[in-house]
Design a protein that fits this description.
By secondary structure, the chain is mainly α. It folds into 2 domains: 93 residues, lambda repressor-like DNA-binding domains (434 Repressor (Amino-terminal Domain), Orthogonal Bundle); 63 residues. It is built from 12 helices and no strands. The longest helix is centred in the N-terminal third of the chain and has 16 residues.
Length: 171
C-alpha cells in the first residue's frame, strides 16, 4: 500500500497542477482491484453499476482506466461500491486502509472551517487556491459524497490531514 499511496499522491498532485507532459500519469492499479473485488463478491458489472447509481459504461471505465476512480467517480460511488463488495474505498484504490485511522467527512469539514477561521481565508479564496469550489463542503459534510477523490486529496493535503483515513470507511 505505501507504494500505491505514493503513486496516487504523485499522480493526483501532477493531475491537479497540470504539471505533466504527455503520456499517462502513473496511477495505482485500482481498475484491476475494482474488477477483482467485484468478481470475488460474485457481483455482475451490471449490478455493480446499478448499485452505485451510475451507467454501465461509466462503471466499465472504473474497471478499465486507473485514473477514473481518482478523478471522475464521486466518493459516494466509491463508498457504495465498496459497501456492495465488502471492502473500503481505500482498499479499492490503494490496496489497504493506511495506518488504520478513520476520519469522517464531518471531521474534515470541521477542520476546513477551523483552517479558514485561523488563517483568515475566505472559502472562495481557499477554493481558488486548490481549483475547486468547496463552499458546499464547509456548509454540509454530506456534500463530500458528490466530490471526486481529487478534491478530498487536495483539501486534506492543504489541511495537513490524512486523506486516506476518510477512504477507510465502507459506508
Amino acid at each position: 500500500m505505501p507504494e500505491d499511496r505514493e503513486r496516487a499522491e504523485r499522480a493526483l498532485h501532477l493531475y491537479a497542477t497540470g504539471d505533466f507532459h504527455g503520456g499517462d500519469l502513473d496511477w495505482p492499479p485500482c481498475a484491476a482491484r475494482i474488477r477483482e473485488a467485484r468478481q470475488r463478491a460474485n457481483v455482475s458489472a451490471v449490478d455493480a453499476a446499478a448499485h452505485s447509481g451510475i451507467s454501465l459504461p461509466a462503471y466499465d471505465d472504473l474497471e478499465r482506466f486507473d485514473d477514473e476512480a481518482f478523478t471522475s467517480a464521486d466518493l459516494g460511488i466509491l463508498m457504495s461500491l465498496g459497501q456492495l463488495l465488502g471492502v473500503s474505498p481505500a482498499q479499492l484504490l490503494l490496496g489497504g486502509d493506511g495506518d488504520g485511522s478513520r476520519l469522517s467527512f464531518e471531521e474534515i469539514s470541521q477542520a476546513l472551517r477551523e483552517y479558514l477561521e485561523v488563517h483568515s481565508v475566505t472559502v472562495d479564496r481557499f477554493g481558488d487556491e486548490i481549483g475547486w469550489d468547496v463552499s458546499g463542503l464547509v456548509e454540509n459534510a454530506a456534500n463530500w459524497r458528490t466530490q471526486p477523490v481529487e478534491v478530498l486529496y487536495l483539501v486534506c493535503t492543504r489541511l495537513s490531514i490524512d486523506w486516506v483515513a476518510a477512504l477507510a470507511r465502507t459506508a
